[in-house]
Amino acid sequence: MKRPEDFAPPSTQAMERFAAIVGGKHVITDEEAMRPFLREWRDRYVGRAACVLLPGAEEEVAALLRTANEHEVAIVPQGGNTGLVGGQIPYQGGNEVVMSLKRLNRIIDIDEVGATMTLQAGVILADAQEAARRAGFVFPIDLAAAGSCMVGGNLATNAGGLNVIAYGVARENCLGLRAAIPSGALIGHLSALRKDNTGHDLRDLFIGAEGTLGIITSAVMKLHPAFTDTALAWVGVETPEEAVRLITFVRTRLERSTLTAMELVCRLGIEFAVRHMGGRDPLQEPAPWYVLIQLSARGAAGSAMHDMEEILGQAFEGGLVIDAALAQNASQHEAFWKLREDMSEAQKHEGGSIKSDISVPVAKIPEMIERGMAEVLKIVPGARPVPFGHVGDGNLHFNISQPQDMTKEDFLARWEDVTTAINEVALSLGGSISAEHGIGRMKRHWMQRIHTPAELAAMRAIKAHFDPKGIMNPGKLLP
Ligand SMILES: Cc1cc2nc3c(=O)[nH]c(=O)nc-3n(C[C@H](O)[C@H](O)[C@H](O)COP(=O)(O)OP(=O)(O)OC[C@H]3O[C@@H](n4cnc5c(N)ncnc54)[C@H](O)[C@@H]3O)c2cc1C
How far is it, in rounded angstroms, from Cα 476 to Cα 208? Predict the structure, then answer.
């Protein structure tokens, strides 16, 4: 495998060819103008690049890749730069070239009969959601970075997010895609067919490949009929066991609605959000754990609330929940969600924060939390675990805030030890060390631990086919 440092900077001739393809003003070399493309929001990954390329058409992406391949220039694809594992940021050497998809931001078509949206890879997720909403549909992906991340990035990372319990991950919602590969070809079909059994499925290779095979330039995504009615409850429970029992409890009692979100939040997370983000605990008395439950319906107004009230009433009687607040209007609905979404940001104000993104079978979540916390405290006594996440699909962001009496630097120096302990607990429970953020550069050293030699050989062979010179995102994903 070629490493980023094996690549020379693009030659003058390569730079001239890049400029001829996209136009000189879309080849950024000015240090100041490149800066936003070279660091991610937490400043955990900061890199350098020879230039940033901004193609405006799919054919330009393909032509740029052909040129990069001929001149052996390393390419780092970038969407909205919200990735959390460093995949979209070049290394420090300064010879790599970032290719941003931000100008490929066109929604090509919404097919209301087929319930699909065809769009370019650089469409911002929130714009896709809004276009779907205006057409009477729901776009299936939603996450807290929706205002910045792009649909191409969502596919390249096989994003999960808040709606997985209702619609599945990004892969399950993509019917077809087109990708540019280093040979300069555009491959794949913008097919909206739900049935098309005509050979090996190349689409699935690019989803979750994190830009290591080629660049996704456009896709056809499923849309879902819009819900007309929603009910949201902020529920207090005693332990994670109750939160997990609540999932089946809710699912088996739904009459008129569907479960569209189920999020677990720990008490400390709410304290942080209230302290730093201006939020307010919706419950009168603090609870040890909270579950955010969203039900959605297409029936008459009040259908979802009917189910919510019935189910929570029964859960209350059965001692499963301590207390609950129901969002009574749109602004309360927004406030409940904001409290959940502020969780990562709020942790920033409490000093160093070690992040992890694991998944386990849903029934194992309580054991994951208990054993994970115990392991972390053995390594860093006084550390403050802030686990939260998409409990409905087994995904926890097992984040740890630093002890109050420790420096941020000393705490962050334990990153590897702490995440290793958490990951090992997840693996022992049949889980994954990366539920939805991907591997990038952060978790690359785990690939040999989690995949067999035969699996890694197959992945390398696929990479070698599409990218024989190793120009696509070197030093990411594959060890
Ligand atoms: C506040 C916050 C909340 C988040 N919540 C979630 C969540 O709930 N669920 C979740 O899954 N993720 C979450 N994320 C992570 C991130 O938003 C997702 O990984 C998202 O899908 C990345 O999209 P992007 O456009 O920003 O991609 P980028 O960050 O630009 O890139 C991510 C990776 O994809 C590659 N890539 C980007 N575009 C393309 C393309 N067109 N073709 C090929 N490769 C490409 C890059 O090289 C890189 O390896 C969150 C991030 C933040 C900051």
Answer: 12
Instruction: Quote the pTM value.
Output: 0.94
Which CATH number covers residue 183?
3.30.465.10
What is the atom index within ligand 1 of the atom nearest the CA of 87? 49
Structure tokens given for 301: 């107004």
Among 183, 176, 155, 177, residue whose Cα is nearest residue 62: 183
For position 359, which CATH number holds?
A: 3.30.70.2740
Structure tokens at 423: 């990951």
User: Ligand 1 centroid vs 101 CA: distance in angstroms?
Assistant: 12
Contacts of 217 (CB under 8 A, 6+ apart): 58, 61, 62, 101, 104, 120, 121, 152, 178, 179, 180, 186
CA of 420 to the centre of ligand 1 (A): 23
Neighbours of 225 (CB within 10 A): 10
State yes or no: pLDDT of 344 exceeds 90: no
Phi, psi at 471, each rounded to 5°: -80, -20
pLDDT band for 43, please (50, 70, 90 cuts).
confident
| Ligand 1 in reach of 90 Cβ (< 6 A) | no
Please tell me whether residues 55 and 126 are part of one structural domain.
Answer: no
Domain span holding position 191 = 107-225
Distance 262 CA to ligand 1 centre (A): 22
Give dist(CA 150, CA 146) in Å, integer.
8
Residue 41 alpha carbon, nearest atom of ligand 1: 53
pLDDT in tens, 133-145: 999 999 999 998 9
Residue 372: per-residue pLDDT: 97
Instruction: Please tell me the distance from the alpha carbon of residue 168 to that of residue 436, in angstroms, as a whole number.
Output: 12
